[in-house]
């Protein structure tokens, strides 16, 4: 356990940084990505914008008030998804065990890689340099013996930095921090703990477990007490060992437009398909998931011939959506691919629709071109349409406000 080395790598102000990279005239200016209308919300803010107190999830009206010269850029979701793929290609060169958390952050297991890549801090410095040289984007990283500390360390290192927390200095780093840095501590829990006089992680670590249990319940008490003492035995779940691969978006404004919902699903299907192909997998299970405005969750699954093709995944969920139309506006939509396995054997392919093989070849070619030239040139036309329509209801979640974990 003490030999385990985990890194958490996170692109800085991802959406905003992509826009600034693509348009150098934005450099040094306060930039946010989000819808143009006043009822929109900030999806991502550049560090210059953050100096005005602007942050993700802030209503655009308030952001504009906070900064008169604010540059507001309409999100290009398909483009960010493509950039994310290039980011993950780089991560895959530094560890076979990569667990993606969202488009712009991931855990890497670096245990035992020192002979090949050098000490973890050196490997991560090289990785960050490669991300900068290849993508022109800054990222921050944390290195630690356990997952949640690696994540906290990358937050502490932002922007454009890295921080290594060794087993020896783990508790000394952790204990002065507020309890809100811990996974599972939201505003409500934070207030609850504050009432008991527990403000820092150190307070939590030193408190009596029995007393804590009586106050917040057995499970939460055990969980937080373990984290506060630096214990977190969750391993990296590499994408290639995942039982399913999914994508979803929560909207700030509930969505009604079926066409727009379908476009979000297409973008998600492309993202999941690319991840399947990156890991040499196909799926035969496809699940559509949506949440109504009243939080009712609806999921529907279909079984299809093995595929790693975006449009095929999309057609399947689009059919499920048409068969199970939402009874009102929705606040979340997503899809996942399950029943994962290697691509079917060639003889199985031969008996299938000849179009499948052609499509598989096309996808392989597209992936190769994307790897060589970056994906932006090859985005499907309808993804661009999504970029245009997206400001009507932007997805929330990727650049969440400074995380209160
Ligand atoms: Mg980020």
Task: Describe the overall structure.
With 405 residues, this protein is of the alpha+beta class. Among the domains are: 64 residues, MutS, DNA mismatch repair protein, domain I; 52 residues, Orthogonal Bundle (DNA polymerase, domain 1), CATH 1.10.150.20; 133 residues, DNA polymerase, Y-family, little finger domain (Dna Ligase, domain 1, 2-Layer Sandwich). Helix content is 43%, strand content 21%. The protein has 17 helices and 13 strands. The chain has a 5-stranded mixed beta sheet. A 5-stranded antiparallel beta sheet has the order 11-10-12-9-13, with helices on one face. Helix 7 links the parallel strand 7 and strand 8. Helix 4 packs parallel to helix 13 and helix 13 packs across helix 17. The longest helix is centred in the middle third of the chain and has 21 residues. The C terminus is likely disordered. The protein binds magnesium ion. Magnesium ion binds next to strand 1.
């Amino acid at each position: 356990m003490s030999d385990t080395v985990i890194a958490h790598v996170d692109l800085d102000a991802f959406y905003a940084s992509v826009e600034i990279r693509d348009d150098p005239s934005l450099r040094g200016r306060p930039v946010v990505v989000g819808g143009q209308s006043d009822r929109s919300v900030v999806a991502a803010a550049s560090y210059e914008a953050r100096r005005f107190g602007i942050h993700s999830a802030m209503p655009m009206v308030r952001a504009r008030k906070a900064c008169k010269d604010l540059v507001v850029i309409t999100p290009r979701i398909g483009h960010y998804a493509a950039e994310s793929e290039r980011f993950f290609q780089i991560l895959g060169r530094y560890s076979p065990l990569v667990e993606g958390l969202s488009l712009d952050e991931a855990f890497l297991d670096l245990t035992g890689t020192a002979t090949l890549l050098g000490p973890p801090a050196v490997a991560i410095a090289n990785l960050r340099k490669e991300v900068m040289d290849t993508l022109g984007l800054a990222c921050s990283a944390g290195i630690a013996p356990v997952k949640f500390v690696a994540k906290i360390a990358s937050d502490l290192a932002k922007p454009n930095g890295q921080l290594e927390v060794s087993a020896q200095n783990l508790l000394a780093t952790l204990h002065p921090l507020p309890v809100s840095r811990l996974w599972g501590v939201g505003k409500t829990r934070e207030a609850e703990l504050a009432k008991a006089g527990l403000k820092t992680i150190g307070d939590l670590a030193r408190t009596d477990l029995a007393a804590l249990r009586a106050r917040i319940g057995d499970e939460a008490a055990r969980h937080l007490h373990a984290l506060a003492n630096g214990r977190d035995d969750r391993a990296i779940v590499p994408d290639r060992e995942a039982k399913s691969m999914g994508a979803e978006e929560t909207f700030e404004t509930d969505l009604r437009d079926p066409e727009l919902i379908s476009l979000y699903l297409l973008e998600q299907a492309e993202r999941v398909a690319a991840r399947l192909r990156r890991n040499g997998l196909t799926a035969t299970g496809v699940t559509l998931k949506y949440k109504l405005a009243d939080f009712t969750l609806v999921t529907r699954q279909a079984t299809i011939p093995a595929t790693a093709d975006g449009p095929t995944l999309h057609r399947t969920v689009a059919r499920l959506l048409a068969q199970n139309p939402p009874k009102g506006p929705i606040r979340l939509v997503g899809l996942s691919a399950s029943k994962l396995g290697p691509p079917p054997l060639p003889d199985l392919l031969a008996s299938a629709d000849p179009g499948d093989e052609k499509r598989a070849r096309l996808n392989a070619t597209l992936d190769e071109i994307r790897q060589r030239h970056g994906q932006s040139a090859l985005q499907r036309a309808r993804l661009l349409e999504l970029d245009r329509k997206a400001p009507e209801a932007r997805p929330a979640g990727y650049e969440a406000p400074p995380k209160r974990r």
